[in-house]
Amino acid sequence: MQDVAGTGLRGCFVTGTDTEVGKTRVSSGLLRWLARQGVRAGGYKPVAAGMEQDAQGRWFNVDVRVLQQASSVPLEESQICTAQLRLACAPHIAAEREGRSIDRAGLIVGAHRVAAMTERVVVEGAGGLCVPLGEGWNSADLMADLQLPVVLVVGMRLGCINHALLTAEAIRARGLELAGWVANTVQPAMPFFGENLNTLRQEMQRRFQTPCLGVVPHLASPTADAIADSLDSALLHHVFALNQESGSAMAAGLAPERNR
Question: By residue range, what is the domain housing residue 192?
Fold first, then answer.
């Protein structure tokens, strides 16, 4: 993946076959993997719906904090997420209930702000591919705005083959690059897991020439490091164009900073 003409962004856009399929956890794993390569990487979640209060009474979004902790550069929560909404529902509904609108241009500016502070940015979308974000536009339109290669997270459960193939078709139909997909085990004992995984590997390769970037097992503690261990390092070097260049921290022999 090279610099995108007209955007200057380098990294990937993580979407999923549905909501609650592990996009945030896979995004955190990608960020931690990049940090291991000495690459200064930051997470960016343009829109997050669903907030709670911490012990100090401050409102926060769990996904935003996961990305903040996994990023190898220090980022404020407001930098990681431009539009944080309190209600846990579809973003456009949450925004309407709060009497506000989601600023499409502002989301793009936010992505460039994080990109300017990092060498690679991992953008995580809200929900699935076509979640509405405002009147007449949705998450897929934002992907087209940013023009980043897409990593698809497939939640391994009944129906995942159909959901994955339909989503991949929609990504390609919009002229976006489908860089790869990650199988995330959301059920601890999915019936016929191996058969479903093999079918997905075959069909995603046959129809879209798209590789599986990793198989994440069902984890009692889905930490960024544990997920990074489940990803295919050789394929990710290609996805993030690290075969042609190294991160500046790695080139200088420096350990990447971690934002704990």
Answer: 11-251
